[in-house]
Design goal:
Blueprint (H helix, E strand, L loop, with lengths): L1 E2 L5 H4 L6 E6 L4 E10 L2 E4 L14 H25 L37 E4 L3 E6 L2
Antiparallel strand pairs: 1-6, 2-3, 2-6, 3-4, 4-5
C-alpha cells in the first residue's frame, strides 16, 4: 500500500483506474477502483468514461456547419435516387429452415457486468482520513 497525499483532486486523478483503499475519519474502510475525483468527491467503481473536455468547437457548431453543406447536396441526390427504379428481393432466405424463428427473447433483467468491489460508491474528500493505492 502506498499513501496518496496530498488529498487534492489533481493528485487523486492521477490514479484513476487503479485499486485504492479509503479510510474515513470514522474508521470505516472502502476498497474499490478509483473512477474519478470531481467537485470535492471521490467515486469508486463507477463509469471510467466521463464527459470529454475538448478545446475544439462545440458539437452544436459542427452540426450546423454539416447541415449547411448537406442541404445543397441532398436535392441533387434525391433527384438521382428517384430516377432509378428500386429492385425488390423475392426471397431473402429461400432454403433456411430456421428463418421464421425470431430467436431468443429479451433477458428479463438488463445484464450488468460483475464488479468484485461492489456498487458505485462516492464520498466527500472532507470525510477521508487516509487514501492508499493498493499495489
Amino acid at each position: 500500500m502506498e499513501p496518496i497525499f496530498p488529498l487534492h483532486e489533481e493528485r487523486i486523478n492521477m490514479f484513476c483506474g487503479m485499486p485504492v483503499c479509503i479510510i474515513t475519519k470514522e474508521g470505516t474502510r472502502h476498497i474499490g477502483i478509483l473512477s474519478h475525483c470531481r467537485g470535492g468527491r471521490i467515486t469508486l467503481n463507477g463509469d471510467q468514461a466521463g464527459p470529454a473536455i475538448s478545446s475544439e468547437t462545440p458539437v452544436g457548431d459542427e452540426k450546423k456547419a454539416k447541415d449547411k453543406h448537406a442541404k445543397k447536396g441532398k436535392k441533387a441526390e434525391t433527384k438521382k435516387a428517384a430516377a432509378v427504379p428500386a429492385k425488390a428481393e423475392i426471397q431473402a432466405y429461400p432454403f433456411d429452415p430456421f428463418y421464421p424463428y425470431p430467436g431468443p427473447g429479451p433477458y428479463p433483467v438488463p445484464y450488468r457486468p460483475y464488479n468484485p468491489f461492489g456498487e458505485t460508491f462516492a464520498i466527500d474528500l472532507s470525510l477521508i482520513a487516509f487514501l492508499f493505492l493498493l499495489l
